[in-house]
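To the wet lab folks,

You asked to see what we're planning to order before we commit. Fair enough. Below is the target structure as tokens, and below that is the sequence we designed to fit it. If anything looks off to you, flag it before the synthesis order goes out.
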């Protein structure tokens, strides 16, 4: 499909192509200021039974997951057969407990256990997603943010790391008063905070915008809902919530869930619904005869996926027996090492947080030339014909050097010296210096595929499962196995050897 474009100009070199494709992160180290805040919060609670509470919290999560999986699928079937059936009921979030009819209600002891055991991992997953959004959308600098299901503030802390200066207003929605108190305690020593307002429900937020002079203020540049939709067991209520969140979104909406089959199904369902809803709206406006409606369609209608999907078609993994999820490795904090149980076996110094997510942006997908258009690659035989004796020596050294990416799990991770020796201050002036690295970005055109699961590296051959678009406008996609060999394309083979689960792959 990319060959249909003629007279294309090469946009990337081998090095910039590799940099643009890189989206995964290595073993992430939780920022010092957050580690200190968590440790100070736990110390202030003076809890002597933390390990038992962490264990009970894990059991509660499993119980909620089991209940959700046992719910009838009739609502889902009805929505697929008649997508408009529940449009009229999309006016409120039904709350009899905290989240949905059988949702999880956080008590004080469960909140403390959550901060000690789960918050660093959830923060790391949020940071991984927000970092990719910033990398793919360099012009996007949110000033007003809505965090739905904010919990203890994992997403807020990630926002502070990724956009430390641009965020001015943050609206938090969290029904649990215990979670709200914990979140406020964790950030009380931070400086230069944006204006933060907490609400117990979407209804309470919408009431503040009910006045005529405030209707324009209801839109947010960024809306994020992390690890919350799975706690709403009713499929109807999930769709209701997502429709309301999309209505509050001015630009970008991020939804993320645990990287389980159930979490992936939730993301797939809401992804399909929002795309269907926007396509239906576009079709209605296309039929309008007046110029005002057509201008409105050009400016505000439509939606496309920023990540992880490279296309806006049906998910090719649906009904395939596989599920779309990703992983972020993080170095465990001292609180996690102290309170997590391991059945008598010493805990590893790291853990892998698996997550599923989708990032929507309003408007049609940009039309871009594909990254490999205009690029020419030599075969291994052609490369060797051009090599000098010095190049042969360098090539030999590259082959004999070990590749750290293949042995990352075997590395022994050291403890945080800061957690052991440094005081409990949480002043941002003592934190690590922020680093910024300018790299060539991958555009949002349909020419970038996504590597799903870990690549299989066998000598001079690399096999990757890639989700990719099949047409130029990105309306259709498929899941395929890509095989790269060193003999046919040593340049792309070198990139494939260093590609990880979650990275992009150029076409």
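Sequence we intend to order:
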């Amino acid at each position: 499909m990319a060959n249909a474009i003629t007279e294309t100009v090469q946009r990337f070199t081998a090095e910039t192509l590799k940099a643009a494709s890189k989206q995964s992160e290595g073993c992430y180290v939780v920022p010092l200021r957050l580690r200190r805040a968590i440790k100070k919060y736990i110390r202030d609670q003076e809890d002597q039974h933390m390990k038992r509470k962490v264990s009970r919290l894990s059991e509660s999560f499993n119980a909620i997951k089991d209940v959700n999986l046992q719910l009838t699928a009739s609502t889902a079937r009805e929505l697929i057969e008649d997508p408009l059936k529940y449009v009229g009921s999309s006016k409120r979030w039904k709350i009899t407990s905290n989240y949905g009819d059988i949702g999880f209600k956080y008590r004080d002891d469960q909140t403390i256990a959550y901060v000690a055991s789960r918050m660093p991992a959830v923060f790391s997953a949020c940071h991984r997603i927000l970092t990719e959004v910033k990398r793919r959308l360099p012009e996007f600098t949110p000033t007003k943010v809505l965090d739905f299901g904010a919990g203890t503030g994992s997403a807020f802390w990630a926002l502070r790391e990724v956009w430390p200066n641009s965020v001015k207003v943050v609206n938090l929605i969290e029904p649990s008063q215990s979670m709200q108190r914990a979140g406020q305690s964790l950030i009380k020593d931070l400086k230069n905070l944006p204006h933060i307002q907490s609400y117990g429900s979407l209804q309470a937020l919408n009431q503040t915008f009910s006045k005529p002079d405030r209707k324009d203020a209801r839109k947010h540049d960024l809306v994020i809902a992390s690890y919350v939709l799975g706690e709403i067991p009713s499929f109807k209520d999930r769709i209701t919530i997502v429709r309301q969140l999309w209505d509050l979104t001015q630009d970008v909406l991020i939804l993320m869930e645990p990287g389980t089959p159930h979490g992936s199904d939730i993301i797939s369902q809401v992804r399909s619904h929002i795309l269907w809803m926007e396509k239906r709206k576009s079709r209605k406006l296309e039929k309008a005869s007046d110029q005002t409606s057509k201008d409105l369609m050009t400016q505000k209608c439509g939606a496309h996926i920023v990540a992880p999907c490279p296309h806006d078609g049906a998910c090719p993994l649906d009904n395939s027996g596989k599920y779309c999820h990703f992983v972020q490795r993080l170095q465990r904090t001292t609180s996690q090492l102290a309170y997590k149980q391991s059945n008598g076996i010493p805990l590893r110094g790291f853990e892998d947080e698996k997550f599923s997510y989708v990032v929507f942006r309003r408007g049609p997908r940009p039309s871009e030339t594909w990254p490999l258009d205009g690029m020419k690659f030599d075969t291994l035989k052609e490369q060797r014909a051009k090599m000098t004796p010095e190049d042969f020596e360098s090539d030999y050294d590259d082959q004999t050097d070990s590749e750290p990416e293949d042995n990352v799990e075997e590395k022994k991770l050291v403890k945080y010296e800061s957690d052991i020796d440094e005081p409990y201050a949480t002043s941002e002036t003592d934190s690590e210096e922020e680093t910024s690295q300018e790299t060539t970005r991958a555009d949002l055109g349909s020419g970038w595929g996504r590597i799903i699961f870990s690549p299989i590296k066998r000598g001079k051959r690399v096999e990757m499962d890639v989700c990719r678009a099949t047409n130029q406008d990105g309306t259709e996609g498929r899941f395929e196995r890509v095989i790269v060999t060193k003999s046919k394309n040593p340049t792309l083979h070198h990139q494939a050897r260093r590609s990880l689960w979650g990275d992009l792959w150029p076409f």
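Structural context that might help your review: The chain has a mean pLDDT of 77. The longest helix spans residues 261-286.

Thanks,
Computational group
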